[in-house]
Amino acid sequence: MLSRPKRLPALLALCWALILAQLPPAHAQGSYLAVINYPEISEGPNALSLGLYYTMIDGSGQVVSDAEIQSVAIGLGDGSSYEASFGKPSSKTYIVLVLDASGSMIQMIGAMRQAAAQAVETAPEDATFAIISFNNVIKVVQDFTADRDDVVAALSRVYSVPNAGTCLYDAAYRALEHLQNAPRGRRAIVLFTDGKDEKAGGAPCSQHTYEDVINFATRQDARVPIHTIGLTTRTSSALNEDQLRELASLTGGFSEVGEQSSLSLLFIKIIESMGSQWIALADVYPKLGENTASIVVELANGIRVKSSEVTFIASRDYIPPPQASVNTISYSSRGDLVINLTLTRAEEVKSLQLQITDIRNNVPAPPFTAQVGDEVTIAASNFQNGEEYRVAITGLDESGQPLFEAQHEFRYDPVIREGELQILAVELDPDVPEFVVEVSAKDLEGLSHYEVWLNAAKDNTVVPGSRRQVEPGAIVQVPLAEIDNGTYTIVLTAVGLDSQVLAETSYQNAIYKVGLFTRLGRSAQGNLVIPCVAGLILFGSGGLLFKFLYLDPRKERRAGVVILKTGMGKGGDLESLDDWSADAVRLNKMRLREDLDRSRARRHDRPTHPNIPGQKPPSPAPPPPPEPAPTPVPDMAVAPPAKRPVARLVVLESPDGMLDGRIFSISETPFTLGRTATHIEFASSAVSRLHAEISYREGTYTIRDDRSTNGTSLDGVPITGKGDAPLQPGMVISLGKKVRLRFELQGG
Known about the structure:
By secondary structure, the protein is α+β, with helices and mostly antiparallel strands.
């Protein structure tokens, strides 16, 4: 029996400390790996409790026992993630030492016993050991016991049998069976060998195969990590190192290989790795069948380490309750806190309750509610720069009962960015008429809408009727139909969701000038009275001009008389003569003759007066042809005009909800939709004054967008700028984003 020196544990600890001090501190450089040793599941009525045993190792493969872990999350293969509790396992550890006692171990059996005994001495206090030796025969040397003296004593009963084989797989399989009888707790096998599975002559020794061992060790109801220790010699090459490392890797164990001089170190490293295990535990909601799980470990220095995946099986589907987790936090340009969430089954969550706590003073602020969504924004006024806070987010159901709670701690340290708003260009469209404003916006987070209006340039006062709201992303238009010609300043402001002005800009010297006839033509659109009146005025004015400029001068020329001055009469002109005197008659005849001579000279033809001798009378003009007799029209029955089918509009959604469900008959056409002075009026700035118009032509109802600001859609297809679109029963008309109506034919 081996002796047990009293100071052996202290000496071993000192030696182990000296050895570790010489190892390269790889984990100090921040290079870590998380290795899942095995999963442990417990299926409940509503959730599956999943425990993942894992070990942290550094870049050189050394176990890290002092990792500073901040948080652990368990992720499933379906993308779901669950915050896990973590810590050192408190359950007992059941370890089976499986020791090679084949013929090749005769010279090294003593060193193996001593190395195993030293490892037992340094094992965690909660460790319980059993010992199995193997060659051609598999033998349980010691059943599970926590008494270290009994374990050390049992090691002395492990001895080598000359020329005996190495039934490696049968020994590992027997250890797995033995662990099934152990109480509930952590389980592990430490398998030591200097060779591979074979008899002295080279034939296979075990009845079980390597695959049998892997399948048994990875069963969900008996998941056991197998740690392997391989002993090499300078003269022997019988050891299958690759297979030993693979066996450990596939089952969640560690593997060490070395010579006889390092046996103690190899055993101690394996045993101590079990004492450095961690466990992450969470209720998860997997699907029926095989699932995969991994962990994400966040260290105190901010490094996040993700493990490889491990499989487990669920006997049924588990439906998760509503949950939330904080993904990231960021800041708006004004310093508001923006929390990005992952929500599951959000349809069951009716509201979110938020409470902010000042960590330094541990003073919680009054809770407040927020709408359900992937983003929650908290105003900057709730925080002080540089202070640390905890925000608790609780999901509430319809009755106000909590469904879940998610917490996140952070330091409030925003970078404030000023929002930018610019007017790049202004174009006058005289046909509409309107100013079309090209806008550039940047860092305007929380933007609700734009407000635009005109200021008169002469006194910088707001022009009545020019103020309007514009949705973000829409074309900024300033209607000018009711605005006089002049020079204006265009003022544009960006308004946030809280009605605060985010930014403001202006454009100077916007000139609006349209001629009289353009105004008259625009005013005449859609109104037949105005063109008729204007036509009458123009016709009358033209007639008067024609009379004064053409008819009256001609009349004066035809009636004009050239009067010869004579020396007769008083004053020497004709007015002094008596109208019936002989001189007056003679002078009048002379005037008429001279007038006729001048007329003939102008026409260059012979006189045609019938009383002049020698001139033939003019040929009479041919009579006009007789008018054709009217063609008789046969009697025909005149078909009455087709009766317009009765149609109606059902309001599905209105801006303020006041018209929801109302039915409006289309009693006449055109039938108008808009904000004011239309058949149906929607009191919202999102609806234009005259937004759309329904007409009836050639047996079909049609709708046309009347150049609205926010557009018109028919069954979700925009029709703005596309003229008349036919309407069919059941079609849904959308005016902008806040009005929806259904078109119906009565009796259809």
